[in-house]
Amino acid sequence: MAETSSKLVRIDPLRLRMERTGQMVTDATIFASGAVNLEYEAVRQLYDAACLPAAKKVLATADIHVGFGIPIGAVLGMDRAIMPAAVGYDINCGMRLLTTPFSKGQIDTDKVAVDIAREIPLGEGHENVRLDKGGLEAVVTKGVAAIPDLVQRVSHRAWEAFDPEEFADDIKRIEEHGRLCGDLGAVPNAAQKGSAQLGTLGGGNHFIEIQCVQEVLDEDLAKTFGLFKNQIVVMIHSGSRRFGYEIADRYMDIAASRPEMAGRKKMLSYLSTDTDAGKDYIAAMAAAANFAFANRHIMALLVRRCFNRMFGPTPLKLVYDVAHNMAKFETHSGSQLWVHRKGATRAFGPEQMAATIFERTGQPIITPGSMGTASFLLVGTGDSDESLSSVNHGAGRVMSRTAAIGKAHRGKVITSPLISDEQFKRSMEGIKLITGDRRRIKEEAPAAYKDIEEVVRIVVACGWAKAVARMLPLAVLKG
Q: Rounded to the nearest 5°, which phi and psi values hold at 332?
């Protein structure tokens, strides 16, 4: 690396420091071991973040890789400022984990996966639950709490799995109880057109996996969460779909058009939280977050419906639903900051989870690998103030999507794929794969991602989280 690499200094086996120089207003830390690949462009993007006048703390987790303006895996604490690009396009892209009463071998998970794929549209551009304006307003202002309203307003098969008592327990197990202060009035008209995508998975790295608990790493915590060895669980990863994308894009444009941002690129523009535009973005971001919470909940209802239809009434208990790609107003080391977690997840400890059902355990952290590799359930320890109570949201890419599948034009190969068909096939042996786009599925191959084992090891070694369980995929549904 040229400019930015000279500023990187390894201060211990788990931490690299980018010392403040040039236009930087603060130094930056990357929490990564020597085994973690660092892309030049991702490090340069972190440098750019540390040059933002409103930045007070800048860091990146081990899954750092190139994003739009700000790297994915970055955590940015800003003073009285909110930055749409540091939240990202897929607002509240997040994870949900459901337990089942079954052990590996007791049910045909391939058949279950096929049934789920019939119920939940996979890939881009699909629709499922259609809302009128009243229904959309309920979702963006109430989040998951709007589901009972939708049951009354909209006819849909998902409601066959709706149970009021189960729903009351679910709400307790969702970050922010699945509801932020959203306002439909702050949502652009273009975003409102995406409201029919509730209950759809999307493409890219979004997935539904049927997994088995391969290893219990903390017996007491696992028992608290209802987990046991060889148990079948279901993991859902999706976000705010086109609804969130349009909000992000519109407010990036608004931020870039501000006089105080003159000369600054769209991807590095931000809004003062004291301005009407800044307040509008916060309300619109919350609306998209509520949409995403409701989206994952509806997909979970459809998964429950599949299990109930195949096996009779089956309890699928929610462990937790955790958000990525969010900005929240928090206090760290005595300072109040807007903490942006782009491709990072909150990791609160027991004390920060006071007055919730997780006040004894700490917040659950759902950390996926890639399809074909392990995923983990962790819990926050409360000893992560150095990372603004944040950890990585997954493994992180080691190569671009184009590099993974290669590039061709009119049948002529321009660049060869770095992942061969045979390599991809071997990496998915023994796993049922259902995808809406077989032509591009190698973009998500395990070899395109970092080693999740090393990434999780770093989090645990830093003292930010405890590992609870390790899960392996049996069936993978991809867009």
A: -135, 130
Residue 420, domain member (yes or no)? no
The first and second tokens of residue 182, run together, are: 């959203």
pLDDT, tens digit, 9 for 90 and up, residues 391-418:
999 999 988 888 898 887 777 778 888 9
Distance CA 7, CA 20 (A): 8
- Which residues are registered as beta bridge partners of 392? 344
424 within domain boundaries: no
Task: Tell me the C-alpha distance between 332 and 319, whole Å.
Answer: 27
Domain holding 9, by residue range, is 5-398+449-478
**How many CB atoms sit inside 10 A of residue 52's CB?**
23
In the annotation, is 324 catalytic? no
- CATH code where residue 390 lies: 3.90.1860.10
Catalytic residue from among 297, 324, 332, 393: 393
**In the structure, what pLDDT confidence band is assigned to residue 440 with cuts at 50, 70 and 90?**
confident
pTM here? 0.96
Beta strands per DSSP E along 148-248: 207-216, 231-238
Both tokens of 119, joined, read 């119920």
What total number of domains does the chain contain? 1
Q: How many CB atoms lie within 10 A of CB 260?
A: 12
